[in-house]
TrEMBL record:
Native species: Batillaria attramentaria
Domain RNA helicase aquarius N-terminal: start-end pairs: 28-86, 116-220
InterPro entries xref list: Aquarius_N
Domain of life of the organism encoding this protein: Eukaryota
One Pfam family this sequence matches: Aquarius_N_1st
Protein name: RNA helicase aquarius N-terminal domain-containing protein
Length: 220
């Protein structure tokens, strides 16, 4: 009898794990060693905004938001040691939109970016994923305190007057709370009032943006 041909041994898959040597040689590690490790921070080097721009463009946008690059940023403590400490108002808000950073969420540093001009559809998608993570992380006090402002009674300002009136008839006590809110709004400084309105209109504007994108897709 003829012997059966031997089956070729299955090829072993190369490990996708990153080695210590690769981490040490990585560009982000080198940047961290120079600017935002604990040792580097003791040197009190001036903040370099161009580094933030380069990290965003090359390591996030340039890699289509690679999970490995995001993990490298987290491993190097880029957010808490450099971005968060050095540029709380400047920082690229999209860099907070990874699930790894969901516990660092602050709505005011995120929502304006989502609706900003010149933001690509890919960026908006990443930010929406982040927003979804936030709504799924309400057990975290910091996140819950921010997210609940998006879905509270004040967002009724976006309803049509007739629809809002119908809801008030079914829930009379809400009318009282709503009127008190409007009186407080009238006493706010202009800047504070604009910020308040922005938060209340956030979800409504987000839905409008979604519909604009949806209607922009050509029918086949």
């Amino acid at each position: 009898m003829e012997s059966e041909p031997k089956k070729a041994a299955p090829k072993q898959k190369k490990s996708a794990a990153v080695t210590v040597e690769q981490i040490q040689e990585d560009r982000l590690t080198q940047l961290a060693n120079e600017f935002w490790t604990d040792a580097a921070l003791k040197e009190n080097k001036p903040f370099n905004a161009q580094i933030v721009e380069d990290v965003y463009q090359k390591e996030l946008m340039g890699t289509d938001f690679s999970t490995k690059r995001i993990m490298m940023l987290e491993f190097s403590r880029y957010l808490e040691n450099y971005l968060w400490q050095q540029c709380p108002t400047y920082c690229q808000l999209l860099q907070l939109s990874m699930k790894n950073f969901e516990n660092e969420f602050l709505l005011g540093r995120f929502s304006s970016r989502l609706q900003g001009n010149g933001v690509t559809l890919r960026e908006q998608t990443i930010l929406l994923i982040f927003l979804n993570h936030c709504f799924n992380s309400l057990e975290v006090d910091l996140i819950r305190g921010q997210v609940q402002e998006l879905v509270a009674l004040p967002i009724w300002v976006n309803l049509l007057p007739g629809r809002r009136e119908d809801l008030f008839k079914k829930n009379p006590k809400y009318r009282k709370f709503y009127n008190v809110m409007l009186k407080k709004d009238a006493k706010l400084p202009e800047k504070a009032r604009e910020q308040t309105q922005f938060q209340r209109q956030f979800l409504s504007n987000l839905f409008a943006t979604y519909l604009e994108v949806l209607h922009s897709i050509p029918e086949k």
